[in-house]
Amino acid sequence: MMELYEAQRAMRNMRKVAMQRGVVAILDVGSSKIACLVLRFDGTERLVEVEGIGSMAGQSGFRVIGAATTRSRGVRFGEISAMQETERAIRTVVQAAQKMAKIRVDHVIACFSGAEPRSYGLTGRIGIEGREVHEQDVARVLASCDVPDYGEDRDVLHAQPVNFALDHRTGLSDPRGQMGQELATDMHMLTVDAIAVQNLAYCVKRCDLELAGIASSSYVSGLSALVEDEQELGAACVDLGGGTTGVSIFMKKHMIYADAVRMGGDHVTSDISMGLQVPTAIAERIKTFYGGVYATGMDDREMIELESDTGDWEHDRRRVSRAELIGIMRPRVEEILEEVRSLLDAAGFEYLPSQKIVLTGGGSQIPGLDGLASKILGQQVRLGRPLRVHGLPQAATGPGFASAVGMCLFATHPQDEWWDFELPVERYPVRSIKRAVRWFKENW
Questions:
Q1: Alpha carbon of 213 to those of 204, 261, 295: distances in Å?
Q2: 132 with 178: CB under 8 angstroms?
Q3: Which of 37, 155, 221, 318 could make a disulfide contact with 239, Cβ separation 3.0–4.6 Å?
Q4: 170, burial (CB in 10 Å: exposed 0-12, middle 13-18, buried 19+)
Q5: Residue 160 belongs to what domain range?
């Protein structure tokens, strides 16, 4: 636990250094593409930490001055499976983004999906004896949380205080300076497979870059695709990537749950490739141009020319109807959405006051997906594009860039995490708790 805590602190310090230098790179390491954005901060005088706990601590203005993407290599289910190939892809994309930005970058902040995320809701409480709450008290109450025994082979990726209560007043975002007898907190902790994190860190290091932060794609996609009201009142973000589909739930502007389905757009492509017996590249193109999940009478008549180059003329000159293509795509898309539904049920999503669902990610662009999703998930569903960010090239404004844009927000408006406070080191009680977000009902 301590090494991890130290590692996270070291990354936080590295990010401060990068921001003082005025430039940092964002790396979104996905299963189908790797994206890199280079951010420049406007003037260091703006980087004075804003006092306060929560989503807008340490605000700063920034703009994107370089952007590049490359086809992902060596990444499966959001995790690195072939180190050299991923390293080559990261080098390629970082060099291209640096070239556009006309500046060299040393520090990167990376996000990734997959790695079997698990969410825990923790609570802690301490006595204050009627005096004012100080920084140390916040540290003490965070340290008093019962940390579950989450396993040797796992790392804590995020540990964020999502609520403070002082005596009978709950829903406080920052208790400092207020008086009371007892301070309590609710914390959301996300753990992931440690090997996946180590591989990513090692890969970044091999590219001669310093890792200045790491985040879960599900979390950062929610930051950029959910509007402020949705983050406040309660909503889920479903990020349909290539290899995985990330799910995150937000409430009171904090992420309170995250998980992932080990399926995404690539699985739809491989179904098309097998069903129509065409190479993957052609299947991907057919999916993009003709794909969908609802067939009408028209689609029986709309024919798609299949090209492949087996040398067998009969086999190469084939046509299929769009209805056949939809018949191949729909079952897989339904399967992904059914899995998402069972994750939301497990998280107790139905207890939230508002239950909006926002679909984003490259896979969310399949025509008719929102209709099918609202049928299966039974909620109000909308398609979400990432927020507009200064300097972002037009090509990078689509839903496939939700996590990359979310990383910009994560880098520049960090939410407070456990390791941002000088925690008293002596106690780390390890007690098991139920893996769920049951404290919704009691606290909000």
A1: 11, 24, 44
A2: yes
A3: 221
A4: middle
A5: 119-191+422-438
